[in-house]
Amino acid sequence: MKTDMKEPERTTTASAFIRGEEYRKMNETQKGTYVMGVIDGLMLAFALTKQKSEQRWLEESTEGMRVDQLTAVVTNYITTKPDQWHVNANALAYDALVRWSNK
Question: For 15-58, how does the pLDDT look when each residue is reduced to its tens digit (9 = 90+)?
């Protein structure tokens, strides 16, 4: 299947994780897919470790929200933190969701 989505360039680091800088270079579809993957991963991690109280805040704060809204929350957070662009994007996305849900 042909796609017009260009893959973001990967930095040559020891880590295979996507950094904030790489996230910023993604197109909107890629960002949305990434954010949903982070949220799905968090939900699974909370379920597997039986941390229902941790899962509840995420479920409640994301209920009824569209992917583009959640992506905007994460993208805005990462964009406004240039001193953190070297950090793994999954950690930045988690921090963005936690801070946003506590407003």
Answer: 568 999 999 999 999 999 999 999 999 988 888 888 777 778 88
Q: What is the pTM of this model?
A: 0.79
b (16+ CB within 10 A) / e for 24-58: eebeeebbbebbeebbeebeeebeeeeeeeebeeb
Assess contact for 34 and 23: CB atoms under 8 A.
yes
Q: For residue 94, what pLDDT is reported?
A: 93
CA distances from 63 to 11, 39, 57, 60, 70 (A): 34, 12, 10, 5, 11
Long-range contacts of 62-68 (CB under 8 A, 24+ apart): 62/97, 67/32, 67/35, 67/36, 68/28, 68/32
- Helices 52-62 and 89-101: crossing angle in degrees, nearest 10, is 80
